Amino acid sequence: MLDGKPSKLESALKDLDEVSKILDLPEDITNILRAPRRILAVTFPVKLDDGSIRVFEGFRVQHNLDRGPAKGGLRYHPEITLDEMKTLAMLMTWKCAVVKIPFGGAKGGVICDPSKMSMDELERLTRRYTTEVGIILGPEKDIPAPDVNTNPQVMAWIMDTYSMNVGYSVPEVVTGKPTDIGGSEGRFDATARGVVTTIEEACRTSGFKFEGATVAIQGAGNVGSNVAKLASDRGAKVVAVSDVMGGIYDPDGLNLWAVAARAMKTGSVTGTPGCDNISNEELLSLDVDILVPAAMGGAITMENVENIKAKILAEAANAPVTHDAERRLFEKGVFVIPDILCNAGGVTVSYFEWIQNIQSLLWSEQDVYRRLNDIMVAAFYRVLDIAQTRKINMRTASMFLAVERVSKAIKARGIYSG
After folding, report:
1. 199 neighbors 289 (Cβ within 8 angstroms)
2. Residue 417: what pLDDT?
3. What residue spans define the domains of the chain?
4. What is the dihedral of CA 82, 323, 398, 109, to 10 degrees?
5. Among candidates 138, 34, 142, 141, which has minimal Cα distance to 90?
6. Which of 312, 380, 300 is closest to 348 using CA atoms?
7. Residue ranges of the alpha helices (H) in 141-221?
8. Distance (Å, rounded) from C-alpha 88 to C-alpha 176?
9. Strand partners, 28
10. Nearest to 203 by CA among 310, 307, 98
């Protein structure tokens, strides 16, 4: 507990325990799912540009491997904790299972502030981290991907480092890398496409049109900015976006070209001409049809949940709503699309990239988009069917589907005793 509030890990375990009771899972299976399969913590020195040496701390957590190799992002951030890595690795397990991708969940991170490091320093840090955790990486073991403050270039460095250590090129060891070295077409906006697809289906289910619906997006990074673009292209009216510096609002709809130009020039969307400046908290409470928290986790809690006015809340970020707040939104009649379903587009196209690399194939962008749409729509309606049949919310239904699939894998494989 932090300041009397449950931690993200406690909330994730609470979700698991709740659905385990609904599934009537044996206690031993639940206990297996509560604990990470493997945790690797490393400390390693990196030479900085000024010649000094700094020691960094990093992690790689593999939550479950029963349905396939581990899959999950690598983030660089000064506030990373081991509990956060455990939580996000567990969420990745459920995310892969919901969309029926044969991966288990993993997550990695290095405690650092990339904004205060040069590209050369980041490259040295990445290559050393890769070498330190390389004993558990591999296309059949654990496949990293971009996450907070990492990108295709970081993935390229990981691929090259791993490949140099084994003596031949292994593009399938990472996903989200540049297309020049085996990255998949359509990966850049895959997460956002999955988000918008699930929102469209939620609108259809809720009986109102996505075209013309008002949208507020917290977060202007890769996911948030692409959700804004795709939503606008499909006829929705994006009225608010925000970043760490604050947000902007225009009830008549934002000029996204002007917003992008402002962000490119100043590093923030705030101050875009013709818009009202608002806080991130104010953005969450706007009277809009669709709210998309696409920043860091824990944005909506019991302290601000009563301010939410949106009809649909799409969890583009990981764990943006606490367990109790999500339950309260369900009671209020808000259609919540849970993160493990909503933002699964990224890992889905990562799976496509992995397949293409292993088989030396190259799918077209339209082929990727078509396959992604098919998987996201199928997963959405499978979860919705469970929710309606069992009269539970979409979070519990998605967890039900994921935990059931993983627990069946555990039972089928049995317990190895040497």
Report:
1. no
2. 84
3. 38-170, 190-342
4. -20
5. 34
6. 380
7. 152-166, 190-206
8. 18
9. none
10. 310
**Cα-based angle 148, 153, 158 (whole degrees, multiple of 5):** 90
CA dist., res. 65 & res. 63, Å (int): 7
Coil, helix or strand at residue 299: coil
> Do 58 and 150 contact (CB within 8 A), yes or no?
no
End-to-end CA, the chain:
38
β-strand 276-278 against 246-249: which pairing, if any? antiparallel
Q: Can you give the pLDDT at residue 323?
A: 83
> What contacts 24+ positions apart, CB below 8 Å, involve 1-6?
5/301, 5/322, 6/322, 6/323, 6/324
Of residues 56, 12, 6, the one with CA closest to residue 34: 12
Amino acid sitting at position 114: P
For 407, phi then psi, to 5°, come to: -65, -35
Q: Is 38-170 in CATH node 3.40.50.10860?
A: yes
- The pLDDT assigned to 134 comes to 96
In degrees rounded to 5, what are phi and psi of residue 293?
-75, 110
* pLDDT digit string, tens, across residues 343-365: 999 999 999 999 999 999 999 99
Catalytic residue among 86, 107, 177, 311: 107
Claim: this prediction has a pTM higher than 0.85: yes
Coil, helix or strand at residue 393:
coil
3-state DSSP assignment of residue 171:
helix
Residue 63 has pLDDT above 70, yes or no: yes
What is the Cα 317 distance to its own chain's centre? 6
**Is residue 270 left, alpha or beta, with left meaning phi > 0 and alpha meaning psi from -120 to 50?**
beta
142-146: strand order across its sheet: 38-47, 53-62, 104-111, 70-77, 142-146
The tokens describing 374, both together, are 């098919």
The pLDDT score that the predictor gives to residue 3 is 55
Class of domain 190-342: alpha beta
DSSP string, 73-125: EEEEETT--HHHHHHHHHHHHHHHHHTT-S-EEEEEEEE--GGGS-HHHHHHH
Residue 284: CB atoms within 10 A of its CB come to 26
Same fold? 38-170, 190-342: yes
Q: Has 107 been annotated as catalytic?
A: yes
The 8-class DSSP code of residue 295 comes to S
Say how far residue 128 (Cα) sits from the centre of its chain.
25
